[in-house]
Amino acid sequence: MAVETVVPAANGNAAKVGPATLEKDYEKLRFIEEMTANADAVQEKVLAEILTRNAETEYLWRYGLGGATDRLTFKAKVPVVTYEDLQPEIQRIANGDRSAILSAHPISEFLTSSGTSAGERKLMPTIKEELDRRQLLYSLLMPVMNLYVPGLDKGKGLYFLFVKSETNTPGGLTARPVLTSYYKSEHFKSRPYDPYNVYTSPTAAILCADAFQSMYAQMLCGLLQRLDVLRVGAVFASGLLRAIRFLQLHWKELSQDIAAGTLTAKVTDPSIRSAVAELLKPDRELARLLAAECSEEEWAGIITRIWPNTKYLDVIVTGAMAQYIPTLEYYSGGLPMACTMYASSECYFGLNLNPMCEPSEVSYTIMPNMAYFEFLPHGGDGHHPGEGVDTAQLVDLADVEVGKEYELVITTYAGLNRYRVGDVLRVTGFHNAAPQFRFVRRKNVLLSIESDKTDEAELQKAVERASALLRPYNASVVEYTSHADTKAIPGHYVIYWELLAKDSSSSAAAAPALARDGVMERCCLAMEEALNSVYRQSRVADGSIGPLEIRVVRGGTFEELMDYAISRGASINQYKVPRCVNFPPILELLDSRVVSAHFSPALPKWIPYFPGRN
Ligand code: AMP
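# adenosine monophosphate complex -> structure
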């Protein structure tokens, strides 16, 4: 039913998010208005709710909260913490301690974050009702999108969505990524029909843990319904590019299946087979079209060539994903890219109220009902493991200042108290009384291809491990730097090494022996083995990161790099070799000095791991 009105903002400032066309949307938009207009009051209420329900938890007792639920007492008594600080509690929960350690509500499962600690995924405890909160945030996305793109109920979304493997902790709790948990929940599986949220992918295909079968079926169903598709998406830009890569590799097989009306025997999952059978009929015309488009040398605009009614791409291209914008533009012929939400395993944070804006303009409005949010002014850090931050510096959601950068600190219903997420955000403005944030970056991330996050210390450790293999050859790594190469899909890590052979002071002398014994290739694999488990899982289980490459550069290259930096104004005393480079002239300089390139010859080892289990 059409509602011929604008959304009245709670502060009387009408139509901030535009006119709503459906009554259901109108309710959701009103909710956004109410929450954002009363951001501070909602935050106060959220904190009081969390502290009331968790008053008897061991954690809050330890800090002597004594049942207080007000902000002042909370801020005075409860420390700001990192994951490492909480590890003993998390370990106990993982080992089966069911007492109210962090949360009064039973921990229902662990969500495995793509952020790592000591090389392993962080385990985020969660409670059942968090699913409702996540679903509430999801339910706000289409009402906002409908304000900008009309007619999305007239077609479908081609979304490439995947579950990942899950395991149990020693104490018997399931541990899996937050989206796997969501897709496997009744909230998703038994969602009521909503014309604005019809997907081309059968749920059975989304829920299949076998990445090939899942992708094949989702692509096939997307092709079969190509004219219905109004939006194409994945969670992150890297996921959508993997789907395009999959099409490049498998279009022949897909078009044979479409022509014959039969599903390849490679897809064995019975529930996928029966879901696909409902759609798949022989369609020679479509098979011919697919083959004609895909056999073209040029894949520019392939998305709109195959799915001509696509209005926008629904993918996150902020943060580390910004590196994929040019490639997505190429494949989509410049379709708008909508970044709709900002979320994590710890908590879903907020949404973009202007989703059709340019990627560089994206700001997320944190929804004050999701958790209690505080902001640590960025740069005012001073936190070292074991020490506290100066908690007086933290400001509340409603008190952040436009133009300033902050690190996000959250207190969640599931029992994280004043927890540093590690994201740096810049305030760009306000929607009503709720601030809007640009995602600036995740702290300490040097290299990222998709959800992997490799920091400087991890890279350093990996280089050290690998360079030990050079010792028998009297060679060593004198300098190194790195780059996440995403020109081809999947992307891969490139590590530039300058070598020194001890006896001749030239790497050229060691080169024949290193080449003969395949040492450099072994170094690539040794580096991969030393990287964190998210990296290795992406390599092994998902195939979403390609083999690591070492490019050996000739002697003196890093000195040239320094000269270049100094010529551009760097101070000679303060110059440090950058451990990651993205600036094109520097990459060009490095690449022009490469004497040999080597790839990892095998997959690193990866097994799902849990603390306390060998
Ligand atoms: P995870 O812990 O694996 O769920 O990853 C959550 C992290 O992904 C966040 O803390 C951010 O660093 C990043 N992230 C999530 N949503 C966005 C977004 N819309 N833009 C940029 N980065 C994001």
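# post-check
The chain has 21 helices and 22 strands.
The two ends are 58 Å apart (CA to CA).
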